[in-house]
C-alpha cells in the first residue's frame, strides 16, 4: 500500500483581493510524480510555496506525512518540513563551489557523514570531478544537476520542482528530464513538478493536474486527462486540437463536415443544444476533391509530417496531419474522411 506523503485540503490563498488559489485538494503518495500543468499566472508556483512553507494559506490544511504542516493555527517553518524545492532559477550560491553548495544544508551531520553524503550525491547527479568549480563555471545542465543535488543531499520526503528545465534548450531539457525522473524513481521520492509544457508533463507523470485561475480543472492519470477531458480548457492544455460547431441529437453532432458520432462531456446534454466538437489532427484523412466543400488554407511542412489547415464550409478551421511528402497546396478543394475509431467528444457551446 502506498504511503501518503503530502495531503492538501481545500487550500485557498489570495493576495489583496485577488484569489491565487481556490479550494485545492489532492494527495501525493510515495514514489509518485504529480505534474501541475497550466498557463503562467494560474497559481502553480503559489501552490508550491504554500507546501514548502514559504507562504501561509488563508484557509485549508497541508499535511506532510501524518503531521500537520499548515492550518489556521499551525505554520511549520520551511526547514522543519523535510521538503526540498528546486526553483526555476536554481537559486545556487554563486560564491560557493559545487561541494559547498551541496553541503550547505547538511550542517547537522558530523564531518564523516557529510563527506559520505557529498560523495554519494555528486556521483548520483554526474558532477564528479567538478567539485571545486563555481556555478558560473558550469553549463546550464550542470547547474540544474547541482540544484537537484543540493536538494537530494538533505534526503527530503518530497521534492517540489518549479519549471526546472525552462532555462535549457530542447535537447538538454529532454535529457535532464529523463535523468531526473530516473533519480527520483530510484530513490522513491514523491515529486510535484510544475510546468507549462505538456510534453514534459505527460512523459514524466503518474498523475496530472490541469490548473486554471487558481483551481484544478481536472486531476487524473495522463491517459484519463488526454482521452477524457472534462472541458474545453483541459482539452486545449492536454493536446493539439481544434473545435467545430455542431448541434447535438441522439448521440450525434450535426456539423458542416458531416454527422459525427459523439460522446457528450456532460450527462445532461439534450437534443438541439449547440456543441463544440473536439477535433484532433489525426481524426480526418484529407482527400483532394474538385467537388469538396472544404478548402486548404495553409500547408506547414514539419519534416516528419505536414500539417494542413483546412477551412470547413461554415468557416471552422481545423488542423489535419498528413504524410510529410504531401503535395496538397493551399487553395485545393478537399473532402474530409473521418478515421476516428471512437466517438468524438462534444462540449456544450455557450453562445
Listing every helix as H and every strand as E from the N terminus to the C terminus, the arrangement reads EEEHEEEHHHEHEHEEHHEEEEEEEEEE
* Number of domains as seen in the coordinates: 2
The H-level CATH homologous superfamily of the largest domain, spelled out, is: P-loop containing nucleotide triphosphate hydrolases
> What general form does the structure show?
globular
Strand content: 35-45%
Q: Total strand count, please?
A: 20
At the fold tier of CATH, the topology name of the largest domain is: Rossmann fold
Structural class: alpha+beta
Mean pLDDT: 91
Q: Mind telling me the C-alpha Rg?
A: 25 Å
In percent, how helical is the residue content? 10-25%
Instruction: Please report the distance between the alpha carbons of the first and last residues.
Output: 48 Å
Give your account of this protein's structure:
There is one protein chain. The chain is of the alpha+beta class. The chain has 2 domains: 4-235, 3-Layer(aba) Sandwich (Rossmann fold), CATH 3.40.50; 240-348, Nucleic acid-binding proteins (OB fold (Dihydrolipoamide Acetyltransferase, E2P)), CATH 2.40.50. It contains 8 helices and 20 strands. The mean pLDDT is 91.
